Amino acid sequence: MLAQIERWFERLLRLIAYAGGLVLVGLMFLVIYEITMRYFFGRPFRGGYELTELAMSLIVAFGLPYTAIVRGHVSVDIFARWLDHPSMRWLTVLVHLTGAVVLGFVAWRAYLYAAGSLRWGDITNMMRIPKHPFQFAVAISAGLFSMVLLLEAAKALAGPNKDRQDTK
Q1: Which residues pair with 130 in a beta bridge?
Q2: Mean local confidence (pLDDT), 40-61
């Protein structure tokens, strides 16, 4: 059951990461347009910096949970030799739960900030683009990352034998 949930969740996060890739492609075209207009026609695109900032927030937000579920983040296993015992499984669960709580708190605060931004009508300086959709994307991303860590905690709690039974 746990393996099925993980597969479904990974597919969902992969689709979101693909959306981030499309934003990256759009950003690439924006940079090409900016360079062309600035150096060949002497007419710089004034909102390029703002669009780059907003696009980068989406790229990171859309890619972060997928990177977490496929274990693509950098990790250092200094104590793995001592802590890689079944009797120390509780520590892995505790670390993942702590991370899930912290990221859940970040998601909640980011959501409140985005809701305030929506209420205040916060917009960018040059292009007057509303900021709240991008802030909500960051909040959702942190929430999804928190869910990934909860899934990792459940897998660690179930142990390696439970995972093998789920995949049969």
Answers
A1: 123
A2: 93
